[in-house]
Amino acid sequence: MQQKTKLFLQALKYSIPHLGKCMQKQHLNHYNFADHYYNRIKLKKYHLTKCLQNKPKISELARNIPSRSFSCKVKHGGFVYYQEGCCLVRSKDEEADNDNYEVLFNLEELKLDQPFIDCIRVAPDEKYVAAKIRTEDSEASTCVIIKLSDQPVMEASFPNVSSFEWVKDEEDEDVLFYTFQRNLRCHDVYRATFGDNKRNERFYTEKDPSYFVFLYLTKDSRFLTINIMNKTTSEVWLIDGLSPWDPPVLIQKRIHGVLYYVEHRDDELYILTNVGEPTEFKLMRTAADTPAIMNWDLFFTMKRNTKVIDLDMFKDHCVLFLKHSNLLYVNVIGLADDSVRSLKLPPWACGFIMDTNSDPKNCPFQLCSPIRPPKYYTYKFAEGKLFEETGHEDPITKTSRVLRLEAKSKDGKLVPMTVFHKTDSEDLQKKPLLIHVYGAYGMDLKMNFRPERRVLVDDGWILAYCHVRGGGELGLQWHADGRLTKKLNGLADLEACIKTLHGQGFSQPSLTTLTAFSAGGVLAGALCNCNPELLRAVTLEAPFLDVLNTMMDTTLPLTLEELEEWGNPSSDEKHKNYIKRYCPYQNIKPQHYPSVHITAYENDERVPLKGIVSYTEKLKEAISEHAKDTGEGYQAPNIILDIQPGGNHVIEDSHKKVCYQGPLSGQIPELDICCFQVFSGCSRVYDKATSQMSYLWVRPRRGGRGGRDTVSINVIQEKCLSPVLDK
Prior knowledge:
By secondary structure, this protein is of the alpha+beta class. Helices cover 20% and strands 35% of the residues. It contains 15 helices and 39 strands. α9 crosses α10. The chain is globular. The N terminus and C terminus are likely disordered. One of its GO terms (biological process) is regulation of synaptic vesicle exocytosis. One of its GO terms (molecular function) is serine-type endopeptidase activity.
């Protein structure tokens, strides 16, 4: 009986109105609770049925795509290097899909919780392999160096490595260059050798704290590039891959507002840069021995409203992966005759997945969308054609639609949207709508395949992705028009998108949920303050909500790096006053709010827990004040703070997200979707300051064996957020 009751609680936890208030009226006893709410359980049986049907469906979809932990594969020489189980392994190229492999290193030797390989680099002559290893719970990483022999052995390990590359010196000695990350800041470059001539020395230190450093080896391995960047400016130094001990050569000293990246082919540098007008990316080239900016010649110009996703260099071709007016393209440039072939990709495609490739004759990649698993494509240079993977066609192509729409913002700017819904859906105005937004750092909305999104569409939801200013979907200017003192453009864009969707018959405010993660929380939180009637609920993951106080605290690791995005309120009164106009925390007021579910991570260095807790407390106080002014009968929204263990910024693996997090509709009983999340028990918490009792669902720490962790908690209708004391 008790197990069955717990199962019902899992499915109905958020579905029953006033659950939090009812829990406060009596001690939580599984038997009494089930008896008292038996009628409600019967009425909500549909939710449980959907829960039991959908969880295996999501798990199956997740299993059909490679886990991020196993997606890192590198081909080098005649071998493929990858992770198998908890081991770094290699197999002969032709046997890569079989179980015939050689174990190089057991990750369990590092004594980490569920480690995975994030990156692999193989030394030029395959004497060594380096692998960066992480866990889902932390951004910290360890780089291990494995000496390849009849009995491979770990020769060295370095903590907190960000990027790393191998080169070979004049004496055929392998040299590893790597960057060291401290407090999310990456300023130091080291170089190390192994074997009989061991050494490890700091090679470069960036003095400006607003910049970070990463390494990139050109496709032909001729040069190692040291890339020094902030959000708007870059500088690149070249290390000769044949003489790595020589001093590096500066390509072009940093110029404020100028970004550039470098590839190499046949003694020429190909430079992707925004220098000149228009200030969008263009491809330029110059001789490798005359790299300064005055020698750069224009080679290829992008169309307006174009985002450069990636560039891949081949012996006779340069391939550009582009997003133009919210559609994907591949441009193949013939380097011998400067010919250009532009290929428009299928309209369902929303994102590229680049394939590590050493085949000079083919350019493979994958296309995906939020509701469609990745599909392989290969451009074959000899045939001059694009070939797609053959086999079973995903049924989602016939059962769903993808629409490219536009909304007119307050200043007349047209804002692109991508919308998904079932083909046979009738009366879309009565269907639930899930809206996604980000709008920061010039980054696109994440539109990779997510099994739980696929299930939502199958169940009748409408998914809408709003590509607002501040993001990068339409190029560099799209980002510039949504940062610093133009941040409110992104908010106006989001408001226009939602109103346009409702106006065109896609759902209605009472069935609309907004979701955002990290910096997307700024626009989501701002909309809740200024136009809450557009939404029924909001779900936020690791959200950035207190812009003003965060950007005034220079002791935080990312504050100085992000001045170009948000401004400097400490020294610029204009920036300070502008941030005050939209900052979610600063603009909370007594009014009706949508229900809010926030997922935070207890050791998140990028978005500290303290700011999220302060936002939650202030929001609850404002709602409580509004409820008092409104009087009896007012149904207050649910404000739920879910604190996950660990220090990672977000859980990126969909299968794990389904296991550790419930979907979004805990706040919207009417939307007929339930929560999959499993809780281990309930604790009562007494706040001496307010003499109030809170009820908190307590989750065991991941990897634990049923023990409770009173720091990592889900807060359901909590009355306090002070340190937890079990009574």
